[in-house]
Amino acid sequence: MLIYCVLLAFIIIFGFIMFYKKEDCIEIEKKKRKWYIIIVFSILCIVMSLRSQKLGTDTYLYTTIFNNYSKMSWLDILSFKDMFIGFAIFNKLVSMVSTNNQAIIIGASVLICSLTGNFIYRNSKHVVYSTILFVLFYHYLNCFNIFRQYIAISIIINTLPLLLNKKIFKYILVCLLAISIHNTAIVALFLIPLAYIKYNKKSVIVYTIIMFFALLLIQYGMNIFSNFFPHYKMYFQEQYMKYSGLGLTILILIYVAISFLAFILRDKNNNEKDNRKFMMLLMINNIAIIANIMSYKFFILYRVSLYFSIFLIIFVPMVFERYKKNRLLLYFMFFIIMLIPFSSKLMSNDGQVVPYKTVLTDKSLAINYYRKGVI
């Protein structure tokens, strides 16, 4: 647990060192943002890459899958009738570099951190705050566990400019790529209407009400989903409802508070392009709220909500930027509050990410690698 606290402290302190003095030159400020992302996400990637294969609930499963895919020929891979063909190809590409099971962990870590860092750099004016939120919202530690889904999520979040510019054909193609990694990425297709909505007070209220009533039919939707994807039926069982406690409740309240504040501050910017992006992210956050509320009954919706809630890492700084009074105090209070669900998940060892072990300090794995001549 200590290493995660150290990482969080480093992100904050390094950010203060880099940006305590605001540069007048836009190019210098841009370079500082770029180097901050490169350095911080490289460190996050190293910590994620060198973790033991025993760290993360699903990690061992994915290393086993990688081992199987690495032994298959390209012809078998491409002719394999599997919904996860994209993930299969990714595994095969990684195995061409190394067939050691640690390779898929490293490959997934590099891909997720690169795509997430790129998303923050290109979409957030406040890269430090967005990076802090990436950790505090537990997305970073989720990557240790459900990294196949987070590969899909990191692909989806980078489609935001396509959605904003109504490049729907390209958006659909990228979504299909993400779906080939993880089926749940199909929910990103439901964001397409947001590209055509005329954003104003009325549309936000109407769209939210429509989403609310649509989710009254959620039970039928879940039954249909489980019929198409039977391997997800296990997520409807009672033992998968464990994250329906205080941590989730606090997160939902935080999402609601952000939406409420964003709705109040929606007209505090005269830039039409920024306002459209702001309102679209507000809509996406409202979807995340509804999905999280419904996850009390269907855990799979918590997994689905991750595709929407991750946008908060850039949306929260956008909202706070429009709040002119005591902005630093607002950030401080928000981060303190965010420590509650973050600590709650860490203390309950959500995703089996504590205690942190590297592949080298895990004696059983180290001995095995030594015998194979890897180390």
What order do the helices and strands come in, and which of them pair?
Layout (H helix, E strand, L loop, with lengths): L1 H18 L6 H24 L9 H12 L3 H6 L5 H13 L4 H22 L3 H10 L2 H4 L4 H11 L2 H5 L3 H12 L21 H14 L3 H11 L17 H19 L7 H23 L5 H10 L2 H10 L5 H21 L15 H10 L3
Describe this structure in words.
It contains 19 helices and no strands. The protein has helices spanning 2-19, 26-49, 59-70, 74-79, 85-97, 102-123, 127-136, 139-142, 147-157, 160-164, 168-179, 201-214, 218-228, 246-264, 272-294, 300-309, 312-321, 327-347, 363-372. The longest helix has 24 residues, at 26-49. The radius of gyration is 21 Å and the shape is globular. The two termini are 26 Å apart.
Sheet with the most strands, sense and barrel status = none
Q: Helical proportion?
A: 55-70%
- Secondary-structure-derived class: mainly alpha
Roughly what is the average pLDDT, rounded to an integer?
Answer: 86
Distance N to C terminus: 26 Å
Give the percentage of residues in beta strands.
Answer: under 5%
Beta strand count: 0
The Rg value, from CA coordinates, equals 21 Å
**Unreliable residue runs:** 238-244
Q: N-to-C SSE series? A: HHHHHHHHHHHHHHHHHHH
Shape summary: globular
State the helix count. Answer: 19
